[in-house]
Design goal:
Length: 690
């Protein structure tokens, strides 16, 4: 690429002695006394080319940095890929293992199947128990007579033992009733009052009263058993018994009976010594707190893999199964369900592709894993002691968790863009010095982002030249474009820093001949908390990638922009050259003034023997206020006198020093178009001492 920057000085080489081939002259035929100094004027070169032709003709280094823009302006285009590649997995500290305990979960009341006991009492039983109060019917036993009216009112009460209950030995009721039913199988209406008592304590627990219940009729009364304690041995205590007269003859039989039934119905017990029935106790629920580091609030997690291990402990004598359901943890759309025996044996469930909703709790809509469970209680083979305060404990362990994606509120997080640097990989900046500015340079960040989190990027770039001087770009912070959803592709975004939003003009004018370094940080959720309706989200396999591009259009405002290069030369027949002048006639559409100065040196020691005067090589085309370029015709020359040629004859190298200025002494911007033409012919004028 370096050849382009001094190609405009190309003809300065042409008057080196090797350019003038004098081999065809036979100098031996001339007299030593003759002093002839003829002057030669001869055309040396001509060209009708564009700037881009010059670039392509010297582009033997296959320099791909030079491009032609859409508006035909030549520009340097540089790309640095992967200056930052952030893996999303580094954003959140996600636990691979979590353990939870439900704590002691009280089992509560258990139910019993309906308990039914009956007691039949005959007229003879009554007459035997009431101490003669109704003995007036005894003589009528077995006869057909008018049934007489009878009446017994205690005390003492008549007490009759009820058959022992086999479902329990003692219980305390938390729910349910006892239905007491009287079935009158006597030939007359009866009135009866009394109650049920615990035989061991004599304490009553249910009173009843039946009035004028007709023959063959049945009546039921219901008494609540809530809070009452009974044993399996109860008595029926009768405090009143009356019959009305039939008023007509009927068979009187002392073996006729009434039946009293006691049905303990829809009952639950809070404690006791019981035989349990097969039953399901439901309605249990709770939630586990699934906490994350740095206060991250997670609404949803999708897992690639993992395991759910559950055990239980139980301090009751019950046996059975806990039927655990995680309604917001689903696989294939179905809630995860696990059956765990009371015995404590573990159960394991795989969590591949499980979707966990952690936002279902209205009061705390994040980091919550709800669960429900029911208990299947086995029927016991014998009596067990039970208390409703007995409890069980669920122990849950999540292990080997591998996350696919996360939604939530990730909080205010800052990540650092690692420091780095690069070189523009062009010799353009190595060859120049002086005052120059590019009118419209641009530095671009090309971002590919799959992180669904609002973010602000604050980056800086520092240019450094060979002397160690630095200039900061000072770009404005910018917002990161984010994908619309987890299933959306990564978003491509280009952020351009130009003269309107950064210090890039001075940044490039330094110039950055040594390096460009960069650093910065990314601040996530700069606007504060987010909601589950518009959550942060990440796919753990995605990334944020930043590439960099620099575009430097050749829109120059320069004054005495200097570049130089050294070319080795041979001696040839330069001893005969007394003077030389290179005349450059040009029609120039390039809006640059180019001056040149030659320095004749020893390339080994660096000694300078002589130099030419600073000379105009090309005169800049003119630029109107509307930016229209008008070609300029000029004729300029570069001359070497005898003293300068003496230095040239000693030298084995020439330093070409070029100085470029934009029109009007560097006050106007020169736009270098690829199709700008240069029509030039070069004439050499030389005087030779023969």
């Amino acid at each position: 690429m370096k050849k382009f920057y001094y190609k405009l000085l190309l003809v300065t080489l042409l008057f080196i002695a090797n350019s003038c081939n004098l081999d065809n002259f036979d100098f031996g035929k001339l007299s030593d006394d003759v002093n002839i100094s003829p002057e030669f004027v001869m055309p040396l070169a001509s060209a009708d080319i564009t700037i881009w032709d010059i670039i392509e003709s010297v582009n033997d280094e296959n320099d791909t940095l030079l491009k032609v823009g859409d508006n035909d302006v030549i520009k340097i285009v540089y790309t640095e890929e992967g200056i930052y590649d952030y893996q999303v997995r580094d954003l959140l500290d996600l636990p691979q293992q979590k353990s939870f305990s439900s704590g002691n979960k009280v089992i509560g009341n258990i139910s019993l199947d309906n308990v039914l006991v009956n007691k039949e009492v005959s007229l003879r039983d009554i007459t035997d128990a009431v101490n003669g109060n109704i003995d007036n019917i005894i003589p009528l036993d077995g006869t057909v007579n008018v049934f007489p009216a009878t009446s017994y009112v205690g005390p003492p009460p008549a007490v009759y033992a009820v058959p022992d209950i086999t479902d329990f030995t003692s219980v305390k009721f938390a729910k349910g009733n006892v239905e007491i039913t009287l079935q009158n199988n006597l030939p007359v209406p009866i009135t009866m009052e009394g109650g049920l008592i615990n035989r061991q304590t004599g304490l009553g627990f249910a009173a009843f009263s039946f009035i004028n219940l007709g023959p063959g009729n049945t009546e039921t009364i219901t008494v609540s058993m809530v809070g009452k304690t009974i044993t399996n041995q109860i008595d029926f205590r009768m405090t009143k018994f009356e019959t009305a007269s039939t008023g007509f003859p009927a068979l009187i039989n002392l073996n006729d009976k009434f039946k009293l039934s006691m049905n303990f119905k829809d009952v639950e017990i809070s404690e006791g010594n019981v035989k349990t029935d097969l039953q399901v106790i439901s309605g249990f629920s709770g939630s586990f707190d699934f906490t994350f580091e740095d206060g991250v609030k997670v609404f949803e997690a999708i897992l690639k893999g993992g395991f759910l291990d559950i055990t239980s402990s139980n301090n009751s004598q019950l046996t059975g199964t806990i039927n655990l359901t995680f309604p917001q943890m689903k696989k294939n759309g179905n809630p995860v369900q696990v059956a765990i025996p009371f015995s404590g044996s573990p159960n394991t469930v795989g969590l591949s592709n499980a979707v966990i909703n952690l936002a279902s709790d209205i009061n705390t809509p994040y980091n919550k894993v709800p669960y429900t469970y029911s208990i299947t209680v086995n029927a016991s083979s014998g009596y067990i002691n039970y208390n409703s305060t007995n409890f069980l404990t669920l122990n849950v362990n999540l292990s080997n968790l591998d996350y696919k994606s996360i939604k939530g509120d990730f909080g205010n997080k800052n990540i650092t863009i690692d420091n780095g640097s690069f070189n523009l990989d062009t010799e353009f900046f190595d060859k120049i010095s002086g005052n120059f500015k590019l009118a419209n340079p641009e530095l671009q960040l090309i971002l590919t982002n799959a992180i669904g989190v609002p973010a602000e990027v604050d980056a800086d770039f520092i240019a450094q030249n060979k002397s160690g001087q630095t200039v900061s770009l000072n770009p404005v912070p910018f917002r990161l474009a984010t994908p619309a959803s987890l299933t959306s592709p990564a978003v491509n975004q280009t952020i351009t820093f130009d003269k309107t939003n950064s210090n890039i003009v001075n940044f490039i004018a330094l110039p950055p001949s040594e390096s460009i370094s960069y650093s910065g940080n990314i601040r996530f959720n700069p606007d504060g908390a987010v909601s589950s309706a518009n959550p942060n989200f990440i796919d753990l396999d995605s990334s944020l990638k930043i590439d960099l591009g620099v575009e430097l259009p050749f829109e120059l405002q320069v004054k005495d922009l200097t570049f130089e290069d050294t070319v080795k030369i041979g001696s040839g027949d330069m001893d005969m050259i007394k003077s030389a002048e290179l005349i450059v006639n040009a029609i120039n559409e390039i809006p640059l003034d180019i001056d040149v100065q030659l320095f004749f040196i020893d390339t080994i020691s660096g000694q300078q023997y002589s130099s030419s005067a600073k000379s105009k090589l090309l005169t800049a085309a003119q630029i109107s206020t509307a930016g229209v370029i008008t070609p300029v015709t000029s004729s300029n020359s570069i001359a070497l006198d005898e003293n300068e040629l003496a230095g040239l004859k000693k030298a084995n190298g020439i330093v070409f020093k070029g100085m470029i200025s934009s029109p009007e002494n560097g006050t106007k911007t020169a736009v270098i178009y690829s199709n700008s033409k240069l029509n030039m012919n070069v004439v050499i004028k030389s005087k030779i001492d023969l």
